[in-house]
Amino acid sequence: xxxxxxxxxxxxxxxxxxxxxxxxxxxxxxxxxxxxxxxxxxxxxxxxxxxxxxxxxxxxxxxxxxxxxxxxxxxxxxxxxxxxxxxxxxxxxxxxxxxxxxxxxxxxxxxxxxxxxxxxxxxxxxxxxxxxxxxxxxxxxxxxxxxxxxxxxxxxxxxxxxxxxxxxxxxxxxxxxxxxxxxxxxxxxxxxxxxxxxxxxxxxxxxxxxxxxxxxxxxxxxxxxxxxxxxxxxxxxxxxxxxxxxxxxxxxxxxxxxxxxxxxxxxxxxxxxxxxxxxxxxxxxxxxxxxxxxxxxxxxxxxxxxxxxxxxxxxxxxxxxxxxxxxxxxxxxxxxxxxxxxxxxxxxxxxxxxxxxxxxxxxxxxxxxxxxxxxxxxxxxxxxxxxxxxxxxxxxxxxxxxxxxxxxxxxxxxxxxxxxxxxxxxxxxxxxxxxxxxxxxxxxxxxxxxxxxxxxxxxxxxxxxxxxxxxxxxxxxxxxxxxxxxxxxxxxxxxxxxxxxxxxxxxx
Length: 508
What we know:
The chain is mainly α.
């Protein structure tokens, strides 16, 4: 028999009436009655649950805290993807082309990443003393060089690879190979230096942390390539927070710098495996298979980038290596503490231009927009000058007393050295920006000889000035070498632009 709409309505009304009457109940001690749920009618025992009594407010479902909910959602997504057998085949859930988020999270991630070294040296100084903190600083300097070696100068090349001439799989293979090679080189360096077990453990912990940074960079570069830079910033933030938390907690409990360094390495490795790597695979298109020729091509094309970056960071580190053999370890702490405000200038400029590298590459690819490209370069250089002056004023007003409070060291005793270091930071920021611009122009091979010349000058100046003037000589040699390199780069960039205008710009 076919039911009419009226029959359906009458059936629904009848069902609702029966629901209003409520269920029938039976006594808990009456086994002869089969229908209805058991209730306890003994004195002091309520017949109905609290949320079903007359006049009682309905019980609200308990909501998880925001952070716990995010973690559970991510963990569920990760397990489901692993269960399905592939991370890269899953559908992306986060939007791209979000410029505002890109700037915010890139700023947050880069800021916290840049603060890891200063914060950890402050923690190490307060909990382990200046000498131990100096040892940690020296391990961090070497670890940073190893990270540069692991990066192999590929990040800017990868991000500006608009047409994806090289597959992401090839970029991954390249990065894991360079990371492993850099770690082996770090162990060999420790062996040559003859470090004892305590210093060796500190170095290994720091090296693993910095090499995880290097490997994670290729996955964060993939997110930026997909115009999801904000996800890369979130990944960088989590890794940096994990490093600070793991190191500080273990050092507070054990007062052993070696144990704290190992904890930092473990925490950052966990973030790579659980966040950075799966995030890049889940939120970007599946890459084609890797190719031996492409991997070799990356090694060949990016060697000038690697050599220039490595030499640049080696130039920065030469005064520190010379100090290690000539001065107590506490001078490593003083030098790096003076450098941290200068590093802030470098980070601030990174906030300005790095989110725009993809767009700068697009502007440069259009010959009609070359003049606009030049105006961007001039504007960023002006911003660098303004930030440098501002930081120098801040150091004179509040920076030096604040540093003295944080480190428990009187930085007033160093006179003009903080201001000289800030000036060196501005010069370094200008070098970093010009190098990125030259990479966009695909003329990175031309600057190799400039870095070689500057490295030779750095070695000569450091050996003379550090042994002659101590810490002041290290700062002076650093500033002198960076100034020389900036002048050489500006001259080379001007020459490149004139040459490109003659060769490639039909509208000139």
